[in-house]
Design brief:
disordered N terminus, 14 helices, 5-stranded mixed beta sheet, alpha/beta, globular
Amino acid sequence: MKKLLAATCIAALAHIGGVVAPASAADVTIRAAHVFNTSFSSHLGVVDFAERVADKTNGAVEVKIFPDGQLGNERELLEGATLGSHDISLTGAAGWAIINPKLGTFELPFLYRDMDHQQKVFNGDLRGAVDEMFDEKGLKFLAYFAYGLRSTLTADAPVDTLESFKGLKIRVPEVPIFVKTFEALGANPTPINFGEIYTALQSGVVQAVEGSPESMLAQKFTEVTKYFSLTQHQSPPILVAMNKAAFERLSPEHQAAVLEAAQEASDALFDKVVKANADAVEAMKAGGVEVVEVSDAEREKIKQAVQPVYDELGAQYESGELLGKIAAVE
């Protein structure tokens, strides 16, 4: 009883005197925000990351997640992480180009030989270059999350040749890389909000949409289309970065825990994304969608047709030396 009374008196005196005891480590909260819905693989990667951080810090650090654009649109979230209004943001490399144009290099079309090549780019020697690109903008790069290879879903006919892209009205994100890629192919790229794609396909406002198999199936776009052509034209690496000042406010032990948790979540998600995309292709077939292969010869024609995107945006992103290093990754 005496001990309890003493503790109560000390607490009261501290409050009266305006003295606040140091916050316990359990009060450290990291705010992570993104625009993806809660079924998307990148969100699940952040959930895994948060659980690993909590485990590695014995609950001392909490990662609080705000999905679905709860804190703003993509630009607002990326700028917000830079300014410190929240701590962590994640999106594709082309999105991060608004923060540092050099990062747009990592989302150019036909850049990666396959998903293994992409993973090696971000986990190998080039990791240091990515760190620097974020660091110079006041951010700490935490991890790469896999998304998958984007291919083309159409309503009327497959697009398995360069010629078949001519005049195709295709929904694309409102991002220069996507718009210019499909312009170079002779298509008619049409930026439409993500939430309006299903209706746009159903009503014929657009004839096609592109994305990973997993995302196309998850959004039920296969209900209003007939062909999935494996163009595999692009693969956006999802990059996770944290406000540098917020990262540096963490103790060295917590900094290490955050970086370890991010890498482990990245590794675990990679295998899940590869499997989910392979499973989605099979599910499409089972659901009556015709999955169409693209020959090596036609893929090479398509690849050559988008060279102007490298000439224009590659120059804007100062990609020259970096492109050589990416190609050299084995």
